[in-house]
Amino acid sequence: MTGLLAGELARAFDDEFARPIARRSGEWLEFLAIRVGAEPYALARSDLSGLFVDKRLTPLPGSGAGLLGIAGFRSVLVPVYDLRALLGIDGAGPPPRWLAAAAAAPVGLAFDRFERYLRVPSTAIVGTGGPGSQVRHAVCTAGETRPVIDVTSLVEALRGRRGSRAEPPT
Questions:
Q1: For residue 30, with 0-12 CB atoms within 10 Å meaning exposed, 13-18 middle and 19 or more buried, which class applies?
Q2: What's 138's domain CATH number?
């Protein structure tokens, strides 16, 4: 079984270098297909610095809307927010198991399920929302459309409400 995986990885590595240069540069985008509650979403890989499962969280007393607590990353404490609350999705059910670390700021975004990695051509991206929206684009693949969460916009909205009890951004 291990030999099969190693062979597949070696072929994938070789195939990547066999593709024309133009195809590798900027024409393809990477996403993580996730579930927030029962809803399908995507996160742009370029907006993230890490993906974790079952990361230990320390709850904070009197936490604001959507703030699950803090988690440690390489000796740095990071606030972790529930994407269900931030996107206005029904939060019924167990706490989210998955956590994506934002690249732009020390913030963790918790969600229910990681489904798969997506690599799509830039033509698979369509616009959906306007300024101020946490979802401005969608990725269309294999008969499925997933809204793309604008992590940078979400982090900016969280910075804007720091220290306040404002409602989650929508």
A1: middle
A2: 2.40.50.180
Beta bridge partners of 32: 43, 117
b (16+ CB within 10 A) / e for 114-136: beeebebeeebbeeeeeeeebbb
Q: What is the DSSP letter of 6?
A: H
Q: Examine residue 8 and state whether it is found in any structural domain, yes or no.
A: no
- State the pTM of this model: 0.75
Given a contact cutoff of 8 angstroms between Cβ atoms, the answer to whether 68 and 168 are in contact is no
CA distance linking residue 111 with residue 118, whole number of Å: 17
Confidence of residue 169 (pLDDT cuts 50, 70, 90): very low
**Measuring CA to CA, which residue among 145, 168, 149, 165 is closest to residue 157?**
168
Alpha carbon 106 to chain centroid, angstroms: 14
Q: How confident is the model at residue 18 (pLDDT cuts 50, 70, 90)?
A: low
Q: How many structural domains compose the chain?
A: 1
Report the C-alpha gap between 80 and 97 in whole angstroms: 12
Q: 133 with 127: CB under 8 angstroms?
A: no
